[in-house]
Write a structure and sequence with these properties.
1 helix; elongated; alpha+beta; 4-stranded antiparallel beta sheet
């Protein structure tokens, strides 16, 4: 049971590291700052880029596929941001 727990924990760490690496490799035309939220879009397959504009800034019609909002943390990792919209 403990081995299974440790294996699952290791898988989660590896997946998180892969996600962080992929996000750090996304194109970005500006200097990223800790604490800022960035919006990830996919231009083509595996052609990711960050924007300062959210889908709402594009009137919910962004030029490319929206993949999520992410905040750059002080340890340079990324956390997913769930945006709450009021109707």
């Amino acid at each position: 049971e403990q081995i299974n727990f440790l294996q699952n924990q290791a898988r989660e760490i590896i997946m998180e590291a892969e996600t962080n690496l992929q996000l750090h490799q996304a194109s970005c035309a500006f200097e990223k700052r800790v604490g800022q939220t960035y919006y990830l879009y996919e231009r083509d397959v595996n052609n990711l880029y960050f924007s300062l504009l959210s889908p709402q800034d594009w009137n919910n019609n962004p030029p490319h596929s929206f993949k999520g909002a992410f905040k750059l943390e002080p340890d340079m990792s990324w956390s997913s941001v769930v945006e709450i919209t009021q109707e």
